[in-house]
């Protein structure tokens, strides 16, 4: 009986470790982050964007209040929106709300993480660890796979994620 329990425990542990190793996914408290990715940058680029999907599985509202990455001097939370017929980008100084039971998508052309004053280029095929801080849930680090320059979406099947999320291959 002890051998059976050990085998079951080992199987559960390996499944847990495999799931936690998936690039672009992490959980902290009631917050689940998935499909995280960023784009490669040209050699002298000073900025880049990060994208992900946040789901609040809890009964209380939360808020993404900060982000950081080791290759940037500063990281900001931004929104792109059409204001008076002009596309403008602005910092979300109070953070990005994540209502209870809701999913918020950070994507190109909308809400996103902005990497400012990049110290080195982001290279396609590598990953960028990013630390996200939520007002209530706390802090979590997620590895963002780096897609090609100009990608519109990330193909997570190529970077350790799993299919079935409706993700597409990057556009040309």
Shape: globular
Assembly type of the chains comes to single chain
How many domains? The number is 1
Task: Return the string of H and E elements.
Answer: HEEEEEEEEEEE
Mean pLDDT: 82
The portion of residues assigned to helices is: 10-25%
Q: Number of helical segments?
A: 1
- Rg computed from alpha carbons, rounded to a whole number of angstroms: 17 Å
Distance between the termini: 56 Å
CATH architecture: Sandwich
Number of separate strands: 11
Tell me the layout of helices and strands:
Layout: H1 2-20, E1 26-28, E2 31-39, E3 47-56, E4 62-68, E5 72-83, E6 86-91, E7 96-98, E8 103-106, E9 112-118, E10 127-134, E11 138-147
Parallel strand pairs: 2-11
Antiparallel strand pairs: 1-2, 2-3, 3-8, 3-9, 4-7, 4-10, 5-6, 5-9, 10-11
Account of the protein in words:
- The protein is mostly beta strands and 172 residues long.
- It has one domain (2-159): PCu(A)C copper chaperone (Immunoglobulin-like, Sandwich).
- 11% of the residues lie in helices and 46% in strands.
- Strands 1, 2, 3, 4, 5, 6, 7, 8, 9, 10 and 11 form an 11-stranded mixed sheet that branches.
- Strand 2 and strand 3 form a beta hairpin.
- The chain is globular.
- The N and C termini lie far apart (56 Å).
């Amino acid at each position: 009986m002890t051998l059976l329990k050990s085998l079951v425990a080992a199987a559960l542990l390996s499944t847990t470790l495999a799931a936690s190793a998936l690039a672009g996914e992490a959980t902290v408290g009631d917050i689940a982050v998935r499909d995280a990715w960023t784009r490669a940058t040209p050699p002298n680029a000073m900025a880049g964007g990060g994208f992900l999907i946040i789901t609040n599985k809890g009964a209380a509202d939360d808020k993404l209040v900060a982000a950081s990455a080791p290759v940037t001097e500063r990281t900001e939370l931004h929104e792109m929106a059409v204001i008076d017929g002009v596309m403008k980008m602005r910092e979300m100084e109070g953070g990005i709300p994540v209502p209870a039971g809701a999913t918020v998508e950070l994507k190109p052309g909308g809400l996103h993480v902005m990497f400012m004053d990049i110290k080195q280029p982001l290279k396609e095929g590598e990953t960028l660890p990013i630390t996200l801080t939520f007002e209530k849930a706390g802090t979590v680090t997620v590895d963002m796979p780096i897609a090609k320059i100009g990608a519109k979406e990330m193909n997570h099947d190529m970077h350790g994620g799993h299919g079935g999320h409706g993700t597409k291959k990057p556009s040309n």
